[in-house]
Write a structure and sequence with these properties.
This protein is mainly alpha-helical. The chain is about 60% helix and about 5% strand. It starts with 11 loop residues before the first helix and ends with a helix.
């Protein structure tokens, strides 16, 4: 689906537990879709229903524009899902360019202000919405950026700071472990910062 790869997937065990729950108790929540039929919320529930031969209930959501629709996808997943601290912040950060674009559109409709003010307000708004500090969100954003640029680079240290002479985990493995909650966001940031 259109939004399937933009949010975190359930683990196999989580998915099986969800499927079992739907089988025993039925589907409690509707599947949220847009007017074109794209699933906005409930990808896993829909798949489970299809596999079980259960006809799910759908709720059609309407938005003023695609930016607001995509924001809804991230917000509903952030609020409803059991996410690690990292995953929660990463989903929050996916909202940043959308909020910035909405702010830009609002400014072009007669608002005043600079790009720097706009970015500051978006960062402030994200921090408030998510309950994470601007500093924490910044650290997660920086780690993701570095990992995307150099996923296969190996760390010279392990997660406890012991020297590994470039035989430590790769940047991509560090990100995987941070997403899983194995290491804290601030620690992941400090490791990457120390490496650079």
């Amino acid at each position: 689906g259109k939004y399937t790869d933009r949010v975190f997937s359930l683990t196999k065990a989580e998915y099986e537990a969800l499927k079992q729950s739907i089988k025993q108790n039925g589907l409690h929540n509707t599947i949220a879709i847009n007017e074109q039929g794209d699933v906005l919320d409930g990808h896993h529930r829909l798949r489970a229903c299809e596999e079980l031969g259960i006809h799910p209930r759908f709720e059609v959501k309407q938005f003023n524009n695609e930016l607001e629709e995509e924001l809804y996808v991230y917000e509903i997943n952030r609020v409803r899902r059991h996410l690690t601290e990292w995953q929660h912040m990463e989903l929050t950060l996916k909202e940043k360019p959308l909020l910035a674009e909405l702010a830009k559109r609002n400014m072009s409709l007669g608002g005043k202000g600079s790009r720097i003010q706009e970015t500051f307000h978006v960062d402030k708004k994200l921090a408030k919405k998510s309950g994470h500090s601007k500093d924490s969100l910044y650290k997660v954003e920086q780690v993701i950026k570095v990992v995307e640029e150099n996923p296969d680079t190996r760390l010279g240290v392990d997660y406890d700071g012991r020297y590994r002479g470039k035989s430590g985990p790769t940047y991509a493995e560090l990100l995987r472990d941070a997403r899983a909650g194995t290491i804290k966001p601030s620690k992941a940031y400090n490791i990457i910062k120390h490496e650079r």
